[in-house]
Each structure stands twice: as structure tokens, then as C-alpha cells.
Amino acid sequence: MNQAINAIKFYYEVVLGMPNRFYEIERPRKESKLPVVIAKDAILAMIKNTNNIKHTCIIQLLYSSGLRRSELLNLKLSDIDSKRMLVKVMNSKGNKDRLTLLSKKALANLRAYYTEYKPTVYLFEGKNGNKYIGGSVLNIVKNAAKKSNLSITETPHILRHSFATHLLESGTGIRQIQILLGHGSTKTTEIYTHVATNTFESIKNPLD
After folding, report:
1. 138 bridge partner residues
2. Catalytic residue flag (residue 111)
3. What's the whole-model pTM score?
């Protein structure tokens, strides 16, 4: 709708050279929804309720590295830097590269996964060595959530939201979280202050 209004304004004001007469048009407002976050215990339960070591590694990386689903699927074996305990995320959203955290627990499971599955190019591969597909990752997360008796429908992105929120709750600064997530601005990252429990802990409830 905004594009349509802008096109009309451009046509009348720039192409035809007419005076502006469209400022009173009401424009749609973008929704502002809080990110859905799940507790650490629930995430640990999801990890425990996976079907195999491959599924375990997928959920662990999504959460412990704060990855988007597409970033997980594009990971190559060379992107896991076990010496520096970092994950290299190449050509992510906005064609940006970044580094994020690698969990020691995830690394141990990744080594066991590599021994069993022996991927060749991509870290997670499907049949015939092809890149793993997004639908499979979604099913892995949903199945683990269902087995963990979580009442909300889980998506891979909820694990990324939880990663950022739990870091914030543990005292990690907004700027550091912004870098780990690959956000272009801290304004995007600040949404997690609205759901982090430590935002509210220092506030005394008026009823109490």
C-alpha cells in the first residue's frame, strides 16, 4: 500500500509537476510484535528429545550460535573454527559475513556427528550429498518441541530469539549481541530488552 501511494505521489508531483495533495492519505502501520522466547530448560528438553545426533547438532547450533535457518543450511565444514570456538557465517542476510559463538557441547556432538555421517561439503547434507532442506529443519524443531510437551508451535527462529534473550539476561551487552546476530543496528537488537526477565526484575510490582 505504501508503494502504491508513493507511486501515485511521484506521478502527480514529479511527472506531472502538480502540487502535493496526498499528505492526508492514511498509511498502514507496520506491526510490532514481541519475539517469542522459550526457557533454557525447554530448549535443553528439545535437545534431549531429538531422534539422532544429526538432529541434536541442528538444534544445538540454531540455539547456541543464534543462527537463522538459511545460515545453518549454508554452513560448510570449513565454517566451524574449533580452535577459536567460532562459527563463520558467510553471505548471510544483506550479503554480510560474521562470526558467532561455537558451544563446547555442540562441538563435541558435531565431532560425533561427523564420524557417523561423514558430510563432504556442507555441514548438514541430505541424500546424495545435497544441501539439507529448510523443511527438514522445521520438522526437526517441531518434533522435538512436541516431544518436550511445549504448548506453542516452535520454529527454528524462536531458538535464535531465545539465544539473544538469554545472553541479554546473563549480562551480555546489546552491542555484542548485535554483532553475534548480524544486525545492522542496535535498534533491531533492542527488541529483546522487551522480553528479557532482567528488564523487569529491578521493578517492584505496585501490588507487592
Report:
1. none
2. no
3. 0.82
